[in-house]
Amino acid sequence: DAKTTQPTSMDCAEGRAANLPCNHSTISGNEYVYWYRQIHSQGPQYIIHGLKNNETNEMASLIITEDRKSSTLILPHATLRDTAVYYCIVRVAVDSNYQLIWGAGTKLIIKP
Amino acid sequence: NAGVTQTPKFRVLKTGQSMTLLCAQDMNHEYMYWYRQDPGMGLRLIHYSVGEGTTAKGEVPDGYNVSRLKKQNFLLGLESAAPSQTSVYFCASSYLGGEAFFGQGTRLTVV
User: Fold this and answer.
1) Looking at beta carbons, which residues of chain A come within 8 Å of B101?
2) Which of A68, A10, A70, A64 has its CA nearest to residue A37?
3) Are B31 and A42 in contact (CB < 8 Å)?
4) Which of A43, A87, A95 sits opposite B104 (nearest CB)?
5) A9-13 and A106-111 as β-strands: parallel, antiparallel, unpaired?
6) Most buried residue among A95, A104, B5, B34 by CB atoms closer than 10 A?
7) Does residue A97 belong to the interface with chain B, where contact is any CB pair within 8 Å?
8) Distance between CA A4 and CA A89 in Å, rounded?
9) B59-102 confidence digits (pLDDT tens)
10) How many helices (H) and strands (E) does chain A have?
């Protein structure tokens, strides 16, 4: 079962920051949080990941709460091309190997 | 640099037929994965491999078999297709379980 909970859908105006929340209250201390997105049923695309510190790259920022029970993905200036399903995922260790456990994601719609 | 390539992109099978899906990656990644995605849902792990010659079961392995004879290839087989296996299949690869790179998917319909 997925270890994350996300809103089913969200809207955001073009040019605004899109803030996507994720709850992962049962995350273990060594489990990373990953974010991917999927546009039009294409193959998922990696966005960012983190353990406990906030992270930023050219696509987005990831803010993880101090207790690690939740995180927020921030797209600073959303464009129409950012319309996609965004998945918040916990990477778990199974028999010393790593697996990504996927939930249903958040459908983000960017409106003009 | 092609990344992850899946073959074929589309396929229609009759119930009981068999087929093999091919995944090839050119990034020298150790880990490879096969997922299925049903409408409105996230990805579910079928099988995965952590290196050449190794395979392991994921969340939904029944009805599928896999092989990793070469590091760059990961094959997914359906021995006797069922309508419940109608889905979109994604292959992915990663370096030691980190950032995963995905193929564009295979849309399989079993009638």
Assistant:
1) 46
2) A10
3) no
4) A43
5) parallel
6) B34
7) yes
8) 7
9) 999 999 999 999 999 999 999 999 999 999 999 999 887 899 99
10) 0, 10
